[in-house]
C-alpha cells in the first residue's frame, strides 16, 4: 500500500518509533478506517512512516518536521484505542526512511521474527540507534 505524498524536507526532520498494545482487537474494518484517517492527517502535515499490527500490538514509525512529529505523537499517545508501552527510537534524521508513504502498513502474521527481535534488542540498549533494515524487511514487497 504505497501512498505518495509531496514532502518538503527543508526543515529539521525527526523520527519516532513506538510500541503499543491495542485495548480491543482491531478488525480489518477498524484498521482500514484508522489508515484512512492517519493518511489524511499525515499528508496534511508532511508526516510519513509505517505501521505494523501484529498479535494485538502496534509498532509505528513516524517521521517528518519536528513540530509535526511531536503533535502527531501527542495525539497518538492520547488515543484510547491503544496503550503506548514504550518509545523504541527517537532521533533527528537527515533523510526520510519512507518518503513515499503517508502511512505504509503491514498486518501479516509471517513477519520475520529475527528482525522483530533485533529491533527489540537494539531498543533495549539505545533509543537512538535504529535497525532500519530490519524494520524495512517486515514490509517486503507488498507495500
Ligand atoms: P478528530 O477529527 O477528532 O478525529 C478523531 C477520529 O479518530 C474519529 O472520528 C475516529 O475516526 C477516530 N478515533 C479517535 N479515537 C477513537 C476511538 N477511541 N474509537 C474509535 N475511533 C476513534 N493519527 C495521525 O494523525 N497520524 C498517525 O500516524 C496516526 N497513527 C495512529 C496509530 C495508531 C496505532 C492509533 C491507534 C492511532 C493513530 N492515529 C494517528 C490517530 C490518532 O491517535 C488520533 O485519533 C488522530 O490523530 C486524531 O485526529 P484528528 O485530530 O483529526 O481528530
Description:
This protein is α+β, with helices and mostly antiparallel strands and 143 residues long. The chain has one domain: Alpha-Beta Plaits, CATH 3.30.70. The protein is 34% helix and 29% strand. It has four helices and five strands; from the N terminus they run E-H-E-E-H-E-E-H-H. It has a five-stranded mixed beta sheet with strand order 4-1-3-2-5, with helices on both faces. A hairpin with a 2-residue loop joins strand 2 (48-54) and strand 3. It starts with 12 loop residues before the first strand and ends in a 6-residue tail after the last helix. Flavin-adenine dinucleotide binds next to helix 1, strand 3 and helix 2. Flavin-adenine dinucleotide binds at residues 20, 34, 37-38, 41-42, 51, 58, 60, 62, 72, 75-76, 79-82, 103.
Considering the chains and any ligands shown, give keywords for the structure.
single chain, 143 residues, alpha+beta, Alpha-Beta Plaits, five-stranded mixed β-sheet, 29% strand, globular, binds flavin-adenine dinucleotide
Give the helices and strands, then pairings.
Elements: E1 13-22, H1 28-45, E2 48-54, E3 57-65, H2 66-77, E4 82-93, E5 104-106, H3 113-125, H4 132-137
Parallel strand pairs: 2-5
Antiparallel strand pairs: 1-3, 1-4, 2-3
Short account of what is shown:
The chain is α+β, with helices and mostly antiparallel strands.
